[in-house]
Amino acid sequence: MTDHRPEHIKTIAEFHRFRGLPGPVHPLVSVVRFEDMRQATNNPQSWVLDFYAIALKKNFHAKLKYGQQVYDFDEGIMTFMAPGQKIGIESDADELAEHSGWLLIFHPDFLWNTPMAKTIRQYEYFDYSVNEALFLSEQEETILNGIMLNIQMEYVRGIDQFTQNIIIGQLEVLLAYAQRFYQRQFITRKISSHDVLTRLEDVLSKSFLNLSDEGLPTVLSVAEGLHVSPNYLSSLLKTLTGKSTQQHIHDKLIGLAKEMLSTTGMSVSEVAYALGFDYPQSFSKLFKSKTKLSPAEFRQSFN
Fold it and tell me: Given its phi and psi angles, is residue 84 left (phi above 0), alpha (psi -120 to 50 degrees) or beta?
């Protein structure tokens, strides 16, 4: 399959032209229906947008591509894209003909000089991979559809000095609901929480087999082992256990350290190197922060 260069779309108006839509009413924010977009050719396509995109897709039988992975969705789904991310779609005309839903696009300049210019970064789901989309119940979909309609009605009625604040207020509500629904999904989605935690333990155990050569596992390496993005994994674990991925790595590390300190004659420095630390001081500092004891004090407690 030929790998086509992604289409780089810089403005809302440029996106409208690219998709065969009338010019946008507002230059920095737009809500469009997928039914109204000009359908693409049969060739695989990918895009890089210079603006935020929030999509709710229905009857989406095409395949979404993130990197080299392809995912099928057969439910109503919601995806969140931040500026600069790449997404591709593989489909034929018949598949896209049934595609419905809406797309909210807004340029970062729309948020300029407002608190949301900074607070939007707190919503980690803008960094989730496509396979970590938000699956909606009918009730949830109805709520989000209503907010989307409010945003569209606000800029269609005419732009004045209140337009930006009102739309941003609606956008904040939309993102807050999405955050709530993701929390629900972490608990109720098909892969049970028990399975996620079991697989996490397996990935961590394998990562800790050869620490002296490979070093400590990272949040990125653990996420890759579970086939999810780092932000998604940390959000999921915080919901299920109250701890981040990094905290889980540290818990595993401290458990091994305690075992080595209490059952072997290895020096503290030897334990540190065996656990992948370049400097024994770094190990001792982490150990004390987690246990309130230095490694030597912990060992002495067994004598």
Answer: left
